[in-house]
Structure formats: structure tokens, C-alpha cells
Amino acid sequence: MMSIEDILDICIEKGREVEDKIKKISDDARLEKLKLDEEYKKKAREGEEMFAVKRKYNDIRKPLYEERKELIKSIPDFWPTAILNYSGLRRFLSKHDKEEIIMFLNSVIVEDGAITFFFDEKNPHFKNTHLTAVYSRTDKGIVQKEGTKILWKDTTTGSENEIPGRYHSLTDVQKKSFFTLFFELKRKTPRKPFDVLLKKIEERLWPTALSYFLNWEITALEAEKGIKHKIALDELKIIHRKLERINDEEYRESEAVEQEFGKKARELQVPIEQKCNKDQRPLYQERNEIVEKFPNFWLLAFLSHYALGDLFSEEDQKIFRFVKSMYVEDEEDVVSGYKITFNFNRNPYFTNTSLTKKISFFEDGVANLSAVDIKWEVKMDIATEYQHDTSVTNIRCVG
Known about the structure:
By secondary structure, the protein is of the alpha+beta class. Helix content is 51%, strand content 14%. It has a 4-stranded antiparallel beta sheet with strand order 1-2-3-4.
């Protein structure tokens, strides 16, 4: 004959098996919903609606970028300074890039699908007057489609094939250079360094170049190296603020597009959640039948919870000893709310055999809470310190 301990061990093992099945159903549903989320985020990013937003704001920004380009010509070393002040990009530059090559950079242009660096013709490091990387975005990442072969000069610092410092050959300079890493085409597949660098240039350096040039530390007096310089800098600040406002407007419109696609994804997720609830319902019923064999199961479960346990008063704990089972059920449409029900054994506190709290959600974002009236036994209403009133609605002990 089996002992009570043996029977409880079997029940515990069975309960674990049931909860594992419940968890698997939830995990499968979550992954299916996540797949839908990703699919519709992709549709939002690559859809005509999003491209229309991008085209609109690219057209608005274009004349401002042209005006900015002309003003930058009046400011010495604008782009070298901006790049060296941007730590996220500077760390990709070799020592020789930072100390020598970058100082011959005259201009940076970012267009749809292409980034070009323009160099001074007196650049002693390579023959190219400009370097261009052409790229496209794919499902697997950003792919470089075209690059520029750097035509390195044999003499970079005045001595043939030798560069002072820790570099001992022209090959070392080529391999370690940011310009080789970013502009020379390696293969037409996504590669992480190119992805990272492109995003830093396209999304950070290009739209906010003035911020990096100033580094938010140069005062108006320090910037006043000449009236032409000062006027150009003041006008650049105006353009910068205009670009910021345009970027904010584009972000809001892009968000609206994503939210619309997100709404479509959520509509398709409803049947997934409904199926999940349907498949789990008999398992929760089976679990309730198992846990009924354990004395004070729900009291111990709630007291063990990191957040709920502290909410229980001594009287709550006494009442919770009579909890027979509990259910959490979504509304049929899943999105409009859910209800929590506690079923009780006969107890000295109230006549209700079950207590239910319903949470309803409305389209305007308002949530409504409703609960049953507790029919307290005479002098057993813990909410009014035993002053009995059957009209009081109180479900303090169930949260």
C-alpha cells in the first residue's frame, strides 16, 4: 500500500508534466506571434508606405544638406574634426589614419545607397580623389555592392615603402586602415564591420555632423577664428536645428506606419492566442484536480510569490486556506480583457462559492475593474474590522 508521501510525490511529478505541457503551448504561441511581429515589422520597413515617408523627407532635407556643404567649405578641417570627435567612429581608425590620412579629407557625402569621401589632390597617401561605397539593404543585412580600390602611393611620408612608428611596411598601413576596411569591396555578402561603420556614418555622423565638430564644448569665442568662419558656423547651427526638426517629423511618421502594420499583426495574433487558450484549458483543469490533493496549495503558492506574498494579512491567509481552485480566463476575443476566479470550499467567512474579478480594456486605453459582492457571514467581514455589512463589495483577499 502506498504511503501519503508516495502519493504526493506522484502528484507532484504529474503536476510538473502538466505544467510543462502548458508552458510548451505558451512558448509555441509566443514564437508564432513573434514571427508575425517580425514579418510585419519587415513589411513596415520595406513597404511602399515607409519608402514614401523616406522619399518625402529626403527631398525636404536635400537643399539643406546642399547649403550645409557650401558653408562647411568655409570651416577648416570640418570633416576630420567631426570624425575624430565621434568616438564611435574614431575607434575604427588606425593610428596612421588619425594622424596622417584623415587630415586630407575635404568632404563627406551620403546619398541613398552610397557614401563618398572626397580628398585633397595633394593627399600623399593614395591617388584617389574620392572613395565610394555603394550598398543595399537585404533580409540578411546591409550588403556592399560596389567599392573603390584604393590606389596607394609608394611614398607616403617621404621615404619609399617605410612609414615611421609602429608600422613597418606599406602593407601594414593598407590592412589596418579604416579606408581599406570600409571602401574596398571584399565580397557581396553582409559583413559586420561594414554594417556597423555604415550605420555610424549614415545614421549618426551625416545628419548631426555639426554636433561632432563642435563636440558641444567649443564656445562662440573659441569658434571665432575669423568673421567668415563665425558666420558659417552660426548658419550651420540654424541648418542643424532645421534638420533635427525634420528628423523628428520623419520619425513620427515612420512610427505611425509601423504602428499601422503592428495593428495588422496583432489582429492576426488573436486566433493564435485563442487556440493557445483552448489547448491549455483542459490542462489547467487537470492541474487543479491534482493540486486539490495538496493542503493549502494556493495559499503557499501565493505566499511564495515575490510580489504577491507581501500583500497578505493574517486574515487573508486564513481565508486563502479555503481556496479550492483558481482560473485566469481571457475574454473570447482575447484583447478586451480577462477575469480571475477563485473557487472556495465551504468556509466560515462568506457564503460565496466563488469570487471573480473582471478586468476590461477599451479602445481609448481605459481599463475597467469589476468584482462580485462578497456575502460575508455575520461579523466576519475583515474589510470593516468585523462590522458586518452585506452590501460591501470587497475582494481585498484576492487582489
